[in-house]
Amino acid sequence: MYREKNVKMKGQLSLFEPDYIKDSDCTKDTPVVHGVKDSPIYGRGVRIKPRLPGRTESEHMKKIYLPELLPLEEYDLIAILLSGGKDSIACYYKLLELGVPKSKMEFWHHDIDGEHPTRRMDWRCTRNYVRALSEAEGIPLRLSWRVNGFFGELYRIGASEPVEWMEPDTGEIIRCRLSPNYVKCRELKEKSLDQMENELKKYGYRMKFPAKTGDLSRRWCSAYLKIMVTDSVMSNLDSLGKLEEIGGKRHKFPAKGGTHQGRWCSGNLKAAVQDSITVNMERTKENVKVLVISGERRGESAGRSKYNEIEIHRTNAIKKAHRLVHQWRPVIDYSEKDVWEVLKRHRVNPHPCYRCGWNRCSCAMCIFSTPPLFAGIRDIYPEDYEALKQDEKILGFTLDNKCDLDSFVGEAKSCVYRGDQRAIENLVTGEFKTEEIYVDGAWRYPAGAFHGAEGGPC
Q: Which fold has domain 12-156+254-436?
């Protein structure tokens, strides 16, 4: 049995006891416990078991319960869900230290913005950052997204847009099989084209060209075309059946709760995208054993403290497709100090958002961001900040659960650290070069390390 730490098992209740270090309690002086260099086990038939036993208190948890992984060498593919944050990067280096050959690994990055033509929710440089790590380490990078991403989903009426991915070797963009509801909604929209044009002219929403402004009431190609015009058309679709009845309606920012309590950005733009790729991609479609690697840690939040270290993945389909899919969270018990120790050992340059003062590498405008973080967004991306305020007005629904964005930020001081100008350039321009991925000279903790900006659980 492989474990990183010898501890006395306390049974299932130990999963809920605080025998891990919360990020809020972690400092640069916290001892390194799990973040030491691992010994190679690949090719030795070793079965990894969790430090804490998996949960079995519900039928769902019993269904995904997994007592141990297969020996790492028995998996055909090890897919590392690479966000660009420190935790997922630490997962990769842990696998490397365990002896997993690079030929078995792929980086999977889910782009939260889905190549939306005008709007971004995530950091502009994140895709280039993960690509730089991929090129520097020689690991294939599989990019995937839901078409039009966050803002397409925010302003959605009807079924969600399809999922696409880019093949690492060829750059070919492949679209997953369309859902029946999406096909029905597309047909309704096509049948209603004349009505849509008439409604646009009748109510004056159609301009000759969209205005180049953050004011979405004038830049009709984005929010107004998708919301006001479509709403007018929807009122005349009774004979065909409303799109909402087929695919649903969004028009709300994600809620600050769990994924089953309205936080749709994680479920619809990350988990569902990953599942679609696994089911549709030839390499993982059938007759294969896949290990999905993700970087959640118990110390991040109360919710994540209850996660299993290993479990059967949602896309597992032994009987139907002979597809075995397991999930492992290798750094789940690591403290923040442990994770930084791994990046330090491999001299990795952290994502620019950490270096500019953010302590989490989630979306730039994550719903869990604190006032100082949103003040930082207003500082670095003023046009995006103003556009987000317009979204609140158009939707009649605020990003925060209790107040509008300006009220939420108030007089908070910007979290932006100005001592690393190159990091600010990365965030503003979106540029990040392969030669920047490793640190030259002394490795230092970024400004946002150890709750530098007091970000929330994301």
A: Rossmann fold (3.40.50)
